Structures are given as C-alpha cells and as structure tokens.
Amino acid sequence: MFNKKIVVADNERVLVFKAKQLVNVLQPGEHKLRGFGDMPELKTYDIGDLYFAEENTVRWFNKYPLLAEHIAHFHVTEQQTGLLYLDDQLKGIVTPGCHLYLWREAGDIRLDTFDIANNLVVDEATLTAIKKVGANSAQKLIRSSRTQAIIPVKELTVPMEQAALLYVDGKYVRQLGAGRYGFWQFQHDIVVKTIDLRHQLLEVSGQEILSKDRVSLRINLNANVRVFDAELALMSTEKVMDYVYNQLQLALREAVGVKTLDDLLLDKLYVNETVKELVVEPLKQVGVELMSVGMKDIILPGDMKAILNQVVEAQKAAEANVIKRREETAATRSLHNTAKMMENNPTLMRLKELESLEKVAEKIENLTVYGGLEGLMNGVVKIA
C-alpha cells in the first residue's frame, strides 16, 4: 500500500507510469497518490525546456492518446525547412526531415515551413529575424540526430561596385546585383562568386625582355582595365585579373622583341599602341575592357647604361664643336665685312682708331705725348 503527496510546480509536468504503462499526467498543484501494490513510477519534466525528448517518444506518442493532449507533434519533410516560434519569438531553424515533440503548455507554438525544393531564397523579413536572434548557427539549429550541424543560411552582401554569380550544386543560376541576400543551404551546395566592376590599375613590373638587337631590358607597364560583363568574365576564366596580367605580359614581350633599343627610345608610343592592339580583342572575349595602357619606364643593364651615356656624351660634344665652328666662321665673316667698309671710308677708319685708342687708354694710368695728337695717332695705330 502507498500513500504519497506530490506537488507539481507551474513549469512542471509529471508522467505517472504503473506497470510500465502511462496512466496519468499530473498538472501543476498538489496531488495524493494512494493505492495498493508498488508505488507508481514518476517522471518529472520542465516544460520550460519546450522539447519532449525521450528514447521512446515516438512509441509513447502513438500509443498513449493522453500524451497527445499535452505534447504537440510537428514534422518537417525532407524537402522543407522551418522556423520554430514560441510566443512569437524565434527559437531556431528546423532541419529537413525533423520530428518535433513540444509541450503545448510551454506557450504559443508556431512552425513556419519553407519549400526548399523549389525556392532557396530567404526573404528579407526572414533573414532579418534569423540574424537578429543569431539563429544561423549550430547552437540555434533544431535537427534530428542523423542530421549534421551546418550553417543553414548562406548570407552575403553584394556592394554597389561589385557583381556576383550564384551557383547551386555546381550549376549557374543567375547574376546578383547590389544588395543583401540569403539562401537555404540544406541539401544544396551554394557558391557565390563576386567580381569588382570598378576600374583597376594593373602594373606589369620588372619584365626582363630581349630587344631585336639582343639588349636585355627591364620594362614596367601600367594598364587600366574594367570588367564590363561579370557573367562572361567569371565563366570564362577562374582568375580574371591573372588572365589580364598574362595577356599584357605576352603582348609586351612580343612588341619589344621585334624592335631595337634605338627604335624603342626613339618612338616611345610604339609599345603602348602595339600592346593595346594585341590585347584589346582577347580581353573583350572574357568581358574585360582595356581603358588605357602605358609604358612606365625602360631600365637598362649597368654596362649598357654606361655605353649609352658615352654615346650621348660624344653626340653632345660633336654638336657643341659644330656650334663653336659655326660661331667662329660668323665672327670672321663679320671682321672681313668691317675691313672692307673701312678700306673705302677714311672717316670710319679714323673712328675705329679712336675707339682702339680709348680701349688702350683705359688700361694706362699715365700717358706722355710727343709730337702732338698726330704723333700719338701715328705711333699707336699703324695701318699699312
């Protein structure tokens, strides 16, 4: 015989088993158990935990209608996922194929399901709710024991200056513009590839190239490029900018290899124009536009630089000698013309004599004159 008083708290429920069979569910309050035989087995549960999880849950729920009065059953199919709410507060994300057994008295329970077989997009409101409570994590993932813990939602933000391509299970789906996106990842492999649509400056630096006359040159090249077709660019090559760099590198080698050093130094626009002509079409085929290209500088080897400096020095010296001779010839011609004029003009001759006398007098402190002015002139300036 047994006689026992049981007090059940507001947040508790007690399952009473007799002969291993469920016979009652005790509600909050005071209860007296009396009878003959063995004392019934009691199992106390905290409904604040929300989930009813026992090894025999499925069998108990199907066997005892009494249990269904206190526990709600929810099932998410393999092609669905769900958001579980308690009193309008998101508790977590339910994985596909999951069965939930929840205490009805825990609060207002709601399960919103989503068909992930036909639509993987997570709408803005749902994405905001998931992000707000941090449900996009293993801690907030409500799953069956056979389901691996994964990040349920693939979330990303595409900036204004970028474009993105969406791939599902290896298949291209569509291009994404600027904005925030979310996609269900259950049973699917979601991959998003992004690419920058802004102008990008590439520098092909330090290229060792042999010119036509076998001079080793180091050339730096700058190029301004822009992706105008994101879909074509990402589907044509894995690394777009690496492809552009290689095309510029090959074009630079081809342009320099057919010209001598003198030709390159003489026509500096040749490299720019030739490289642009060679790469414009290949880049356009992968969705990239070449805006501009320019040779930054040409670096010569040390010995070649010394030789080139000697050549330049010799050229400048020759030019200076030519100028000197030209000026000497002009001066002689001027003296000849002056002499011809004075030959036939005695007055001009006398003025020239006075000018010479003035220059001589500037350098003499004292001058003694004998024979008058005529003697001075004849003694200082004599003309045959």
* Radius of gyration computed on alpha carbons: 50 Å
Strand order within the widest sheet?
Answer: 10-7-8-11
- The assigned structural class equals alpha+beta
Largest sheet, strands/sense/barrel: 4 strands, mixed
**Mass-distribution shape:** rod-shaped
Number of domains: 3
Give the topology string: H per helix, E per strand.
EEEEEHHEEEEEHEEEEEEEEHHHHEHHH
Helix percentage: 25-40%
Q: What is the number of beta strands?
A: 19
User: Number of helix segments?
Assistant: 10
Family: Belongs to the band 7/mec-2 family.
Main location: membrane
Subcellular location: Membrane
Membrane topology: Single-pass membrane protein
What report would you give on this structure?
This protein has helices spanning 57-63, 65-68, 124-133, 230-236, 240-257, 261-266, 269-284, 302-343, 346-362, 372-380, and strands at 2-8, 12-18, 21-26, 29-35, 41-46, 71-75, 80-86, 89-94, 99-103, 109-115, 141-142, 153-158, 162-168, 171-176, 179-184, 190-196, 200-210, 216-227, 288-299. By secondary structure, the protein is α+β, with helices and mostly antiparallel strands. It folds into 3 domains: 50-194, no CATH class; 200-299, Tetrahydropterin Synthase, Chain A; 345-384, no CATH class. Strand 13 and strand 14 (171-176) form a beta hairpin. Helix 5 packs antiparallel against helix 7. Belongs to the band 7/mec-2 family. This is Slipin family protein. It is a single-pass membrane protein. Pfam families: Band_7.
